Amino acid sequence: MRKPEDAKSDSGLRGDYEGAAADYTVAQDWDAYPEETHDRWRRLYARQSRLCAQYGAPQYLSGLARLDCAGGIPRFEETNAVLSTATGWKIVPVPGFIPDGVFFDHLANRRFPVTRWIRDEHELDYLVEPDVFHDFFGHVPILLDPTFADFLEAYGRAGERAMAMDALDMLARIYWYTVEFGLIDDGGTLKAFGAGIVSSAGETVYSVTDPDVLRLPFDPVRIMRTAYTIDTFQKNYFVLDNLDQLMRGLVELDFGPIYQEWRAAPPIPIGERLPGEQPHPAALAPVKETQS
Ligand code: HBI
Ligand code: FE
């Protein structure tokens, strides 16, 4: 149970796994959110939606508009009425990070786990673990895109085999460099769709404007061999030509031989460009940062 002193920051039962079901889902308990948490959501939403209007991918922005969630922390049940109609996905409330196997099983069944608590005021610009703003604002809008929705289910299905082959860290890099930190070429202009980018004020701008960042063309094998960092802006990104590439990359390739060939090899260091590698063409003219 929560300690009494935590009651004041009751921003959605942070880290309270008491009462979670076997699949780690909990009730969202929307009525328990104090007004201050809805106000915090509105401020986060206003800032990020303004930045994403300029730097976010169209496939992400169209989903965000349909979710109509500027007014406060959304009721997941209301979201599910829209989401399930659009792509057969639904979001399920969870208290925080859940075991890999449980996570993959949810994705394989078109259930996206969304953390129910919101960050504290002092974490507005950065927090290590995902909260409801990262999970909902970052991940849910693009789940309304049928191609992305199909890919994420296929990713979930791929988890079991990766775990069985002791190559989960390689498969997780696919998620990291697309679902969390993916960029896409929008008619020659770099745009962001990864949840870790679009939910972060700093990284939304940095990911598409910083001139020193390595932005390579999407390549599943290169991604599965590339290390990543979890507590700083990324030093390298991968750029999709379109969302269909995600599905093709996952289903046209047999990951088994790739796991066998590379799982014992040290990962390619972050930010390192291999001989002969060229940035994605859309990255050759980084987006100019304008005051929004
Ligand atoms: N749990 N709630 C939650 N959200 C995640 O994104 C998540 C998780 N558990 C495991 C996990 N991600 C990753 O380790 C897997 O992608 C490998
Ligand atoms: Fe995430």
From TrEMBL:
Every Biopterin-dependent aromatic amino acid hydroxylase family profile domain range: 1-292
Substrates-to-products reaction catalysed: (6R)-L-erythro-5,6,7,8-tetrahydrobiopterin + L-phenylalanine + O2 = (4aS,6R)-4a-hydroxy-L-erythro-5,6,7,8-tetrahydrobiopterin + L-tyrosine
Record-stated family: Belongs to the biopterin-dependent aromatic amino acid hydroxylase family.
Named cofactor requirement(s): Fe(2+)
Positions bound to Fe cation: H134, H139, E180
The protein's Enzyme Commission number: 1.14.16.1
GO molecular-function terms, A-Z: iron ion binding; phenylalanine 4-monooxygenase activity
Region of interest called Disordered, as start-end residue ranges on this chain: 270-292
Record-level GO BP terms: L-phenylalanine catabolic process
SUPFAM superfamilies, sorted: Aromatic aminoacid monoxygenases, catalytic and oligomerization domains
Pathway(s) of this molecule: Amino-acid degradation; L-phenylalanine degradation; acetoacetate and fumarate from L-phenylalanine: step 1/6
Pfam family, one: Biopterin_H
Family matches, as InterPro entries: ArAA_hydroxylase (IPR001273), ArAA_hydroxylase_Fe/CU_BS (IPR018301), ArAA_hydroxylase_sf (IPR036951), Aro-AA_hydroxylase_C_sf (IPR036329), Aromatic-AA_hydroxylase_C (IPR019774), Phe-4-hydroxylase_mono (IPR005960)
Highest taxon listed in the record's lineage: Bacteria
Descriptive protein name: Phenylalanine-4-hydroxylase
UniProt keywords, alphabetically: Iron, Metal-binding, Monooxygenase, Oxidoreductase, Phenylalanine catabolism
